[in-house]
Amino acid sequence: AQSVTQPDIHITVSEGASLELRCNYSYGATPYLFWYVQSPGQGLQLLLKYFSGDTLVQGIKGFEAEFKRSQSSFNLRKPSVHWSDAAEYFCAVGAGTGRRALTFGSGTRLQVQP
Amino acid sequence: DAGITQSPRHKVTETGTPVTLRCHQTENHRYMYWYRQDPGHGLRLIHYSYGVKDTDKGEVSDGYSVSRSKTEDFLLTLESATSSQTSVYFCAITDRENTEAFFGQGTRLTVV
User: Fold this and answer.
1) Across the interface, do A106 and B106 touch by the CB < 8 Å criterion?
2) What distance in Å separates residue B81's CA from the closest CA in chain A?
3) CB atoms < 10 A from the CB of B44, how many?
4) A31 DSSP assignment
5) Does A29 touch chain B (CB under 8 A)?
6) Which of A20, A69, B12, B20 lies 20 to 30 A from A62 at CA?
7) Which residue from B minimizes the CA distance to A47?
8) Is the Cβ of B40 closer than 8 Å to some Cβ of chain A?
């Protein structure tokens, strides 16, 4: 069975600073990988996804993520954080076959300091 | 925004009572899911459906049942609510398995 680890529960960055949120997955084959963002009291919104091909994927709101098979990682990055990026971020993995849903990490809460 | 409506949005119920949460979609997507969100656990899959009358269990299905009699509706039932089922419940839909999921706004359930 697949699993996802987000080692950072809480991260604080200054506005304008760069950001990297870590995600490690466990799955035997090439997984489908996703990053979602959740603002307080809201549902989840997809930031970006990786299915195959180019390992650097671009998403909405200026986010990007890089798939590294050798490290089983799919870290999320943004070069310059805005105060509106404060939210909780979830990494998720989907198995390639079968009728299974996504497995989510426990999330990383991002706080942005002025 | 994807056409997903969860009802109710908030509910307080007593231990031992039955509770049904509803998820309604207007996208005609085949796959529907119920997750629960708890601090420190992210989202965990309760049940999912891959078509009318076709459902299967997820990671945390004990104490929950589901039904899907129409493409657009997916019901989650707590037969006898317990305090451990206090959580925020999210419905999601996808057009195919393991592709982008669209989420509802969530239902906050408190069992007292």
Assistant:
1) no
2) 23
3) 18
4) P
5) no
6) A69
7) B100
8) yes
pLDDT tens profile A55-91: 999 999 999 999 999 999 999 999 999 999 999 999 9
- Write out pLDDT tens, residues A4-58: 999 999 999 999 999 999 999 998 777 889 999 999 888 899 999 998 888 999 9
- The pLDDT value given to residue B65: 98
- Predicted pLDDT at A99: 55
pLDDT on residue A97: 57
For residue A22, give both structure tokens: 């870590």
Task: From A6, A19, A4, A1, select the one nearest A112 (Cα to Cα).
Answer: A19
Q: Which of A104, A58, A31 is nearest to B103 (CA)?
A: A104
Closest CA to A21 of A86, A103, A113: A86
Structure tokens at B21: 């949460």
DSSP annotation of A54 reads -
Residues ≥6 apart with Cβ < 8 Å to A84:
none
CA separation for the pair B46, A100 (Å, rounded): 12
Task: State how far residue A104 is from chain B, nearest Cα, in angstroms.
Answer: 6
